[in-house]
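Complex record, two chains
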Amino acid sequence: MYGYAGRILRVNLSTGVITTEPTPENVMRDFLGGRGLGAYLLWTEVPRGADPLGPENKLFISPGPLSGLLFPGAGKMDFTCKSPLTGGYAGASMGGMLTAEIRYAGYDSIILEGISPKPVYLFIDDDTVELRDASDYWGMGSFALERRLKDELGEEFQIATIGPAGENLVKYACINHDFGRQAGRGGVGTVMGVKKVKAIAVRGSRSIPIADVDEFVRVAKEAYRACKTADMLEEWTRYGTMMVTSWCDENGTLPTRNFQSGSFELGPNIYAPVFREKIVVTDKGCFGCPSPCGKYSYSRKHAIYVEGPEYETNGMLGSDLGLGDIEDIAKANQLCDELGLDSISTGGCIAWAMECYEKGLLNQEQTGGLDLRFGNAEAVFVLIERIARREGWLGNLLAEGVKHAAAVVGQGSEKWAIHVKGMEQSAYATHDATSMLLAYMTADVGAHHNRAWAITYDIAVGRSRVTPEKAAKVIELQHIRPLMDVLGCCRLQWVELGMSLEYYAPALKALTGIDRSWEDLLHISERIWNLTRMYWVREVEGFGRNWDAPPPRFVEEPAVGGVTDGKFTPPEAAQQMLSYYYEQRGWDENGIPTRETLERLGLAELVGVSPR
Amino acid sequence: MYGYAGRILRVNLSTGVITTEPTPENVMRDFLGGRGLGAYLLWTEVPRGADPLGPENKLFISPGPLSGLLFPGAGKMDFTCKSPLTGGYAGASMGGMLTAEIRYAGYDSIILEGISPKPVYLFIDDDTVELRDASDYWGMGSFALERRLKDELGEEFQIATIGPAGENLVKYACINHDFGRQAGRGGVGTVMGVKKVKAIAVRGSRSIPIADVDEFVRVAKEAYRACKTADMLEEWTRYGTMMVTSWCDENGTLPTRNFQSGSFELGPNIYAPVFREKIVVTDKGCFGCPSPCGKYSYSRKHAIYVEGPEYETNGMLGSDLGLGDIEDIAKANQLCDELGLDSISTGGCIAWAMECYEKGLLNQEQTGGLDLRFGNAEAVFVLIERIARREGWLGNLLAEGVKHAAAVVGQGSEKWAIHVKGMEQSAYATHDATSMLLAYMTADVGAHHNRAWAITYDIAVGRSRVTPEKAAKVIELQHIRPLMDVLGCCRLQWVELGMSLEYYAPALKALTGIDRSWEDLLHISERIWNLTRMYWVREVEGFGRNWDAPPPRFVEEPAVGGVTDGKFTPPEAAQQMLSYYYEQRGWDENGIPTRETLERLGLAELVGVSPR
């Protein structure tokens, strides 16, 4: 009675064999569920050296222990697989309603394995699990299909889909849900595509067993009350993550023209108030959310509806491409969603190509006739379509990700391929923000912000400073924030509303009946972090310090304009931050967890470290 | 679209892992389902040399393709495993309502594998499959538990249970269902017991896909009409299989006092009309039956209800034990059912023990104080209880089966251990009936009658005759009758009402859309017969002609009394029948299928015969 339904659903797409199996109790004890369970399953089930696009790779779809319960933000879930984009660990979280239905259907994780011989969708109605023919849906846009499946199955089914990008194995295809929620990063949609799973439809009707219902309700009510009385609630709910745009612009961290700058001269046109007044139609929240950040928008200019843009998309498809009209960004966002592309990686790839074009490394023959200057919205729209469909030389090239594209084009373009470990950096310019740069260098999936959003800390304590305290902050955040993904919760109640972290441990205890402190939970989070680190070590030949290298731009090239004008982080400063980080983590100078660290975390046996 | 739901449900009791997998189409094509599917799965899934009471043995629970459809007698199903009684193949059929529910739940077969760490029952509600704690039910009688589970789950759930005999691993424990239907022979209940599965509860709500519904209905209606207008319908429905008792007695084939005689001086007291008038309360049929043979009875003398006795029980717990009061037989029957004992093997074991007692090989110390003379009903009741509970030296000994018991007691008692291959012979005395004797010698599970009920043929053509035609008749019956178990149908509409065999192939064709003649189906039946023969060859060291030896009594000792007084079958006559049989089957002189035969039947690859 861990407060889990205690079952894993295994769907072998090659054979059609469908299995339910009890989730091992020790795994739930040591990895809690959600992303932790995904990481454990990835380690134990996907064989070393598996081709990310081959039948050996698997997709692990895991709600967390709190998700689906009435607790603030408990509407998140995790997708884990070996990344087709990076060749290493991929774990992508997604909000919406799907996680609750999976829990109500009684599954701790859904494992997709093998490759279907034909397009299918996975139908789950509690215990009824079927692979249904999806030949008629192949080629459809994400939300067109979501609408159609809801019409066919019933509104209460929650649907996740892939778009044409996933079908065409674009390396950063996403998974879409709830008409605007994505598991975006690392190519989780690509893996769904190669498996020929066009969609997942889930309805559940079971109760989630709770060890102490009264106590759980008490804790949850308190947590909700804290959220609902938070000072920031009104502003946050009005603008969502878009609130950050102006702050980033002012602080020189808004990615602009492929991160050449941290501030955008057209920035004010894409700030939150303009966004809200010009295109937002209504607010939209995930399951259990007291502070809905989702904004459903309509662009008159393009006659399209879209959920968003939220900040990351605003940065990566807006300022980073030189686009200064919120309606153009909304359109680019809508294209990415419907086609099933990660808007962050898409923006990063196009920004790199625009810089190549402006610097004469790509001509119009190579761009397929596109005038790829920064700011050319029409060219962006066309290029997004081409990437999703792998059309033309450039579309097909960018579909492989910026690291690969730069390796092909060469001529120094690697210098402005803004990625870590092959994953395009998300929307914080890190010329002069040593914590945030370190966060990108060390994030478990590549250059993604959500493992440690340290940028405000940089601004607070001194952005250029190189101190052990900054490395410690990054590590602290890398334990707290991913822990939310483990629990199946959204971090934004804590980040934006200031909801106390002290609610989580009591809630989990009331749920499971197991007394664990917040520190115990952080210890588990550290265990998971080290396991995914070891996954990189296991899968990537020669993995080490070099893989944590920052994008050259931030350590070699001065930023242009804004408050960070002329600033960059000296390479030795970045390396010093990394050394602080390794030392505090208990990793060696090459960034490999030591035997002592693995033993301290109870991972030695799992990862196969021989006893002393 | 073979008219099958096309799924196998796999329940691993050791791990709790529950799997559904598509039934391979080629397997359904070559083995049709039901007992054919069971035989295929036994061959392919249970490793050579598996301990019947170990975790490697499996129980395959298979409805047939016609079962659950409105077709005469389509209420049968098959249980297959490696037999704990014989060490070879076991396939036991059962009537009632369960088979229909399993089909409506959409399963071609349910595989129980491994061993549960604690008592459980298997709950199946369409796709919802759960192993539920059955600790509270352990020790309960079969029908007490069936009543309780129906009260708890709902009347529409169909339940199969084991009694204490199955829990205590009596080697011939049966599986009980519908308050009086059994899968009786070979220890299928023992295998359920060792796996700690106390019961199975199934409810289904799916449709069975039919390729040509109109045609199926047409064929089924014609078949029903033929049954309902049959001359024998009234008499058959009045008496059921008990009708046979007087005929057997008159023809010297009623097993009497451990088969020492074929006629019983108290016979008329246990004939059908006495039965009907004295104790029958109502008729009771299986799913889809036009001619219900089940009789629900009440004994005032013992104040018990029981379904039965039917003929086999009447013979084996009645005349064969010297019991001449139908109410005593009903009570013995009721004890076997509630305790979960195969009444045929139970009767055979007790009859052997009674003969030992009368001949001075067992004394009252060994019988635990029982005066085990033939005809002592009270002693029989006590001994049945002791066998089921393995109480006392004799109870525990008889729980191992008559072959084992005779090997322990020795002193010539092997001569009157009436079994073939370790399975106690059912209720036809075969002193002078060469076809029926051959049928017992060669039946795929041991000395069971239902594979070839050749006794009427013996009477018709000359009971002592030794001819190739008689062997041919046995083979013909061994293909027709087991084919019914493959299809999930009862044979009694054909045997008793004379319903034409010509309805089956068109019904199966309308169901599956595949055009196969009756001869095609018999060819499949022959394939299955040879596969189970090869299973004996594979599993039993030194298997061959000696394993088809008749019980010594019928070839060495003259019968006493009745029309067969002084008669027995000369050993060389039995061997000559066997030689005819082997030759016609395409088996060598040792009874092993030749390579040519296996190739003709398309079995060479499956059983691992190397190509020429």
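Note: Chain B has three domains: 7-203, 241-409, 434-498+517-607.
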